[in-house]
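Troubleshooting entry. The earlier prediction with iron/sulfur cluster gave an output that would not parse, so I re-checked the input for stray whitespace and re-submitted. Clean input:
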Amino acid sequence: MKVSLFITCISDALFPPIGEAMTRLLARYGVKLHFPEVQTCCGQPAFNSGYWDEARASAKTILEAFEDSDFVIAPSGSCTGMIHHYYPKLFENDPILLEKSLQLQEKIFEFSQFLVQVLGVTDVGAVFPHKVTYHPSCHGTRLLGIKEEPMLLMSHVKGMELVPLPYAEDCCGFGGTFAIKMSNISGAMVEEKSQHVLETEAEVLVGLDMGCLLNIGGNLKFQGKPVRVMHLAELLYEGVKLK
Amino acid sequence: MSKPQGSSVKQRSETALKDEFLIDAVKFTTEKLKNGKLAATAEHGNWEEWRERGKLIRAHTIAHLDFYLNQFIENARAQGVHVHFAPEAKDAARIAVEIAKHHQAKSVVKSKSMVSEEVHINEAFEELGIESVESDLGEYIIQLANEPPSHIIIPAIHKNRYQIAELLSKEAGQTLPPETKVLAGFARQKLRDKFLEADIGLTGCNFGIAESGSVVIFENEGNARMVSTVPKTQITLMGMERLIPTWDDLEVMATLLPRSATGQKLTVYMSGITGPRRQSDGDGPEEMHIIIVDNGRSLQLGDPDFQELLNCIRCGACLNACPVYRHIGGHSYPGTYSGPIGAVLTPALNKNSGEWEDVANASSLCGACYEACPVKIPLHDMLVYLRNRKVEDGHTATGEKMAMKGFKVLMSSYKLYSKAVKMGQVGQKLLVRNGVIKSQLGPLKGWTAYRHIPALPTRSFREQWKALSTEVEASMPSMSSETKTRLEQMVLNRKKGGHE
Ligand code: SF4
């Protein structure tokens, strides 16, 4: 049984503790992660900007990396969604790579999906005595239908107070290159999102996508607000260590 | 026209983002409509199923549009309707003007029609000195303000009641209080006279029923019913995709449209018009014309990426759900249609991708539009397809092209990619203060104007992997047989079942 980690470029370069948390957390269930080093990026920045040739070059490294994996797990609903939803379109004119895309589509899971749907785990035995709010990222919820999984996992964390985020389903304004090309609109969106986060008075903002968390967290920091921003894998692993 | 100036969404939205009145008004109403819709669909109970039915009906009609158009035209003509076909906007305006000239019309009264906005019918009438009056309250308000609609179903969504009172007071020649009742009362009185004077009534069309050649209009104010019964001549403007095969199909549409648009179970009025007045009829026009408008719609027929766009029933739900629309309002968009549907439709109706401005970029691709759409149009996918077409046609900025070339080179090879990360770790030292990058770097300016960037850690995950995996493996338990079986079973099922 080969379970591989797709770390995603953003977590690889900017947030290595997430990969570590995933590796250590899954090891507790006897899941030994593999890390094929040929992986780079899912190609989303280029794909979403319309540069499909460039996106394909990047996506090919992913198809190659996970060709012989049984399961692939990624700490991002957005990158998983890209593979799941758009690889078949990206490679529609290449029968061989299309076939590989369809195979990968079946075996790739976002982190919380993998825990709940594949391992059947909803209680990792974590303790996290903090006030937390959760931002459900758009691609995870809308492209992959991830709604219950994180809620189930968080509902079992002892000592944690989960405060509902007002207007949680609203996009944070990240959208990859959108944040740069339409910086004024994206800026207004993230300011609104931060405002909602602050209204909850939570100490921790948790999510499943580092793109969105980089955006909201970056804005909170810009405003000088001391909200701690974490990926769910980090929160769960820290909670397990605390116990 | 007081639409904000600028040749891009980014420029025009600058004006909107600074206009607190506008943002508050738009947020207030979209929120109300969105919640109304959510409540109505929850109460319906079977929404997803009906959504699927709606999608199937629309997709079937569009797939056989030539057949249903012929059937519609034949049946309408059999009822005595004059049916015209307008390949382009200017043709539609010309046909309408000719009808008006033929009747020596002095005034036209209109009910709400986005197609009439699309083909600029008011301007065409005005050129001839024919008065053209909007009778829908929202349309009347923006006509007085000399502005185009900023929402598909709530044209004056960007105005608050104080601004509306000011506009109507000017028209009344006296100060009217900012009370909805008084304002609506004034408009109603004023418009009543216009109805009685008008030589021509001009309406839009929510659905054309192919099996009987009828036109169906949903509305709340009763003005469309007046427009289609009082004047002697009626002109209906209809987008060529507006058909459904049968009256039975209308049941599904009547379930989806009002709920999605305003959260109503049904609009106050739903009129079905089959031909001009017959001898036994109590009212109705003596002469009826239907102008079927193409104006770029046939470009989507047979295009696998965009054909579904023709399924749209113009309910406006995607606008109300859209966080971008909510922040910038409808006038930031380039064409007649705004919000997510406009961001796709405006470019799709125009073959030349060089003229699309940046409208397809005005989306974070969050998919809220798709989720809201009663006929499941994947607008978020189409936005990406549009961006792709622009790139393929070579209409992109040089800087971006270079950046993407760089992306391709780096991301094709993990070795180069790792090297680049390494260089970043070292190179950033000049920019990092207290763990974050604040400086206004060239291309990242837009980002750092609102956010800090965390510094790259000194070692990436992949650099840490070897040590980490060795350490973890040394002490990890083996997988329980239960989990093992579970995983193996999943892999097996996958191989048996093939792809989804
Ligand atoms: S795209 Fe869908 S949600 Fe938007 S106006 Fe058309 S039917 Fe309504």
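This one parsed fine. The mean pLDDT of chain A is 96.
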